[in-house]
Amino acid sequence: MYDGEDGKWRDFSRTVPPHLVELIGASAAAGRRTVVLFEDWQAAEAAINTAGLLVARGLRAAAALLWNANNTYGFDRVDFALLRRAASITTISRYMRGELAAVGVDAAILPNGIAERWLRPLPPGEPGSLRAAFGERPAFVKVARFDQDKRWLWSIDAIAIARSSGLHPRLLMRGSRSPYADVVGARIRAQGLSVDRVALSAQTTTDELASAVGSCHGDIVFLDFFIPERVLRALYQAAEGVLANSEKEPFGLVGLEVMASGGIVYVGRTGEDYAVPFGNCVVMQSD
């Protein structure tokens, strides 16, 4: 999606606003008012251009334009002075409201959420097969981008300390293709942790993952494949804990997904407005 991103952004900013204005005009002719939600830096200029075209067509009152910030990425490319005049600005957490206040924007909070399917109970056998595969070893899970903000090094160190304490833990981890993966790998080696790699198909089942994990003996099990949602939910529920301990998290969808799956999540200290320490999760305030 990032290949040729700048060109895609320019094309989007130029071509989408006229199309939206046509749709808004048609709705206004039918007696309806249109709500348009733009999101993140890539859509900010389109929001500004749409507002300008609506004013030129005498249709500004026919639409409510909103621009929502999910994270701070790309803030340096947003003309907030123009955006404030073009759209109502919203965001997803108190943390993000503070980040927007730092650039002179008073945003309304519209909390994020998860899909209802995450709330459906899992068949008991799904997490059960994984628990059987874990055996007596406490198993933790971390699924995140390889990025400094995700506090991978803290997670690796925690497993190493737990091992030194005689707990014999195991970390099942899934990262991303990023240069920071080398930093994480170096910390794993520096801590003397052993690694098993598991590579399965994108259509794998929970039982297949359980069978693969059951044959692993390392301190780290690197899940080198796309994990289907159903399998991921079972993994979240079966583990002793899921490490979603980001240093900077705009909202924290993973935390909600783990809770919905029936798991225990360790979250960071920024955007997780839903977190109740030792009520529905463990909040990590520091290293």
The secondary-structure element order is HEHEHEHEHEHEHEHEHEHEE
Based on DSSP secondary structure assignment, what is the total number of beta strands?
11
* CATH T-level fold name of the largest domain: Rossmann fold
Note the total helix count.
Answer: 10
The average pLDDT is 94
Q: Indicate the structural class.
A: alpha/beta
Q: Residue share in helices?
A: 40-55%
Please give the radius of gyration in angstroms: 23 Å
Please identify, by name, the CATH architecture of the largest domain: 3-Layer(aba) Sandwich
Summarize the entry for a quick read.
The protein has 287 residues and is of the alpha/beta class.
Kindly describe this structure.
This protein is an alpha/beta fold and 287 residues long. The protein has two domains: 5-109, 3-Layer(aba) Sandwich (Rossmann fold); 117-283, Glycogen Phosphorylase B (Rossmann fold, 3-Layer(aba) Sandwich), CATH 3.40.50.2000. The chain is 40% helix and 16% strand. The protein contains ten helices and eleven strands. The chain has a seven-stranded parallel β-sheet, with helices on both faces. Helix 5 crosses helix 9. The protein is elongated, with a radius of gyration of 23 Å. The protein starts with a helix and ends with a strand. 36% of the residues are buried.
